[in-house]
Amino acid sequence: MTAYLSSAEPGFAQAFETLLASKREASVEVGETVAAIIADVRKRGDVALIELTTKFDGMTLDAAGLRFTADEIEEAYRAVDPDVRSALELAHRRITAHHQKQMPEDSTYTDDIGVTLGSRWTAVEAVGLYVPGGLASYPSSVLMNAIPAKVAGVERLAMVVPTPKGVVNPAVLAAAKIAGVDEIYRVGGAQAVAALAFGTDTIKPVYKIVGPGNAYVAAAKRQVFGTVGIDMIAGPSEVLVIADSTANPAWIAADLLAQAEHGGGAQSILLTTDADLAKAVDAEVDRQIGTLRAPDTARAGWNEFGAIITVATIDEAIALANRIASEHVELALDDPQSVVEKIRNAGAIFVGHHTPEAIGDYVGGSNHVLPTARSARFASGLGVLDFVKRTTILGCTPAALSELADATVALAEAEGLQAHGRSVSIRLNR
Amino acid sequence: MTAYLSSAEPGFAQAFETLLASKREASVEVGETVAAIIADVRKRGDVALIELTTKFDGMTLDAAGLRFTADEIEEAYRAVDPDVRSALELAHRRITAHHQKQMPEDSTYTDDIGVTLGSRWTAVEAVGLYVPGGLASYPSSVLMNAIPAKVAGVERLAMVVPTPKGVVNPAVLAAAKIAGVDEIYRVGGAQAVAALAFGTDTIKPVYKIVGPGNAYVAAAKRQVFGTVGIDMIAGPSEVLVIADSTANPAWIAADLLAQAEHGGGAQSILLTTDADLAKAVDAEVDRQIGTLRAPDTARAGWNEFGAIITVATIDEAIALANRIASEHVELALDDPQSVVEKIRNAGAIFVGHHTPEAIGDYVGGSNHVLPTARSARFASGLGVLDFVKRTTILGCTPAALSELADATVALAEAEGLQAHGRSVSIRLNR
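YS: structure for the whole thing
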């Protein structure tokens, strides 16, 4: 049942804690199964990868068929509705333009005693991109993961996508082609993650794996972490709308449903200073659900995880929003700008009545891979920084080394690391 | 036995692969023990934390004694040798100055169709810092972890350090005081990580946990990841020295031993174009080991994990270095600058004959928490970016929303997300 809370009621603090702690994801214990799959692919390579794909995806294939050919990709691209194709191309242009501004700059300087300190950024050479099959096989997610990698300068971007019974979403291949993905393989699950991490005859290993997946994929990413880098583990999507009396209830209802229709634990919360708006939105959600072609998922999501919280002041809403730390925060307010700077924990903030969250999902230009499950308290959305790494550069003149020698030797000795100190003093004939 | 390889020999490719794949860490399976400890602290809070500390650290304490008092910290600070204290203060100034340059800048712009796109950085509010007890209780590591957090603007930095039998390294407390750590608790192990992640009556929860630790600590960090953020899992330290005939064998030997004396799987590798240098360094390592006050760890480390590789050209050395992706790379070369830009995978590069790696460990100014075990292929050293997170800001004018509407609806429909499209069209009366 959708939660209705008011900060004026006596049990509010406890009810809010319960809402914060609510678990929205079925926890499936698949660690051992996944470990066995990874060990198998690591040992038997392509042979295991093919057997597992046959078993889990209900299809036959051989090593030569693991990789999509250029012709197959081209054919899929042509099969996509031209309107969708040009929408993907618009999204590609806008996402690329925004992410180009995220490229960090190298910096080198020499300080007053002659020590040169530098930070140099280089792209991760090879990256794997996991794309789910079936219902959650979203071309927009291909763009959102692939574009920052390509903007960063990743030379080899290898995508994997399962094709149950041989079926693939042509729009996913079209998005990959538009984004410049270098290789695409028709494999998925933990076996695909293992192949990317350790390599097989057909799939060369990568250094980092990104992209969403089911419980098996998430477990596999956790297990190969260390051998390769991984991105964050994505949880169910969520939106928090902060609205005052100037908000349009029908628009807010539409935004809440746009989140609820994802299913799988997706959560929509309305935080408002206006009790009348709260009622109007609630009624409007019910009305709009009835007009959806496939209302069941949205209805179930809203009923199970939705919440409407009324508060006395916008400051109170801000304080609660910072505790919720939502993936998406919409500010449907008369004066949203003054609130933006006070929202500290959020993956993305959507400012004003004319910025529905869906704009950020597709063509706004920003990334839609954002921290979920309160992780906006400590994590950022996906971006160019996820595909580069910084190397520190340090250089001393003989004089600088001499100036720093006594302190280095003192600390090395205090830590019981005599040879550390000697590596300095030996250069100074001390 | 120290490995001696030459790229000119027929079995080199295989021998190099073996070196790359060699495991330098005892893998201890502690997952279940750690899970039980975490569950206990989560359930019973301070009571469990105290019981476990009594059991593992061999000491008695009560809730009031969990936290070091200001007087205790001040007393420890005064107990530290003044030379060490001023070395810590020099290190603090230099590390702070360098990390201040890492603070990312906010950026907001409005594009040609009226979409405002922003990236705003805010500090993680509360961070936990794990500091090992016993032999590896290094004051320099306290500085390296605490300073970037404080430069980033972390308001609450809570440190935990186990004090077996009640003994603590005063220099560790002094470093914490110098770095501005806000709270220090005398607890360690998985129980300390659990307390930081979930909170107890005495220790408020944090949003991110950083710092090195033993296998239990590493496992605990992995298990609480998601509830809180964590830094990378640190492996044994390593150095790769690239040297030509201009290098001084005694200096290189000292650098190799400075790494080997860490023990615990630490690795030193020399890559050189000069076979005579290789021999001279080898002899010099043997000679210098004999002059150390405590030679056993360095000797064992060099014998078990050390390697000397001779190559024909510097370009060959660079190619191998990029595959090794060492935490530390020293360039003991006549012309190191021309090589710096070709080393792509390295945590830090130490340029020229007068820059021993130990300078970077203490007072160079850069961070000594760097990616190990080949993870420099995809990861960076610790820095200010690890203590901030980026929030995306998106704002549309009605005209901008209208311009992006068709593409958004086309993509939403292609992905079967009707309510996403409607959240846009409803605002445009479409």
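YS: worth flagging: The two ends of chain B are 76 Å apart (CA to CA).
IM: good catch. Also DSSP finds 17 helices and 14 strands in chain B.
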